[in-house]
Specification:
Elements: E1 4-8, H1 11-21, E2 30-31, E3 34-35, E4 47-51, H2 63-80, H3 95-103, H4 110-115, E5 127-130, E6 137-138, E7 146-147, E8 152-155, H5 157-171, H6 178-181, H7 186-205, H8 213-226
Parallel strand pairs: 2-7
Antiparallel strand pairs: 1-4, 3-4, 5-8, 6-7
Length: 229
Amino acid sequence: MGDLVLKPGGGPLHEWLASALADVTLDGFRVATPVCTRDGVWALHGWSATRWVEGSEPDYSAISTWREILAAGRAFHRAVAHLGRPDFLDARQDWWARADKAVWGEREFAAVARRLQSGLEPLGRPQLVHADLTHNVLFAPGLAPAVIDISPYWRPPEYAEGIVVADALCWHRAPASLWETLDVSVPAVARGLLFRMATTNERVASGADGVDLQDEARRYEMAAAAIGL
């Protein structure tokens, strides 16, 4: 709709983004900023809106793509490092929020945690991070990367990078050495893999259709082997 992108939902996340992004300097990245109605409402009839940003998905078969995605994520995380922890994070109960809590020992998920236990080490100071960068960084010639659909968590920035590498290894046929090439640690990738594995389990537990457990298990096993776990 013109220069707007409409999405179902909104609520506390959309309202918080509108306020927080107004205090963020865009250096090395762009964002799709939330837009309110003429009456100052951030969601209407179950829909919210953001500004349209120019860009397209990159070639995920190229190593340079993953380097550029991480660079955009790092620029974003530097820019939001001063923000405080949003209160609404505590109330989230979606698949991804429950999986994230499992990875960080905030929800029981012992069987999954044991699988990559040897890789779980501290990653640093938590801050606001975008934990779903892989398909949410768009590129356009002559413009900084656009970071879209911000998925906020209060975790160390390297956790977000580990999820990117985990995605590359599991779903994009990236070489096993990608984590070394991009200088992302084994503990970060291990947490990223646990996050995706836990999300799969949450989807299955909720009765979601279309989950090929055998295929996903094979992919996670290959990714774990790639980082030596």
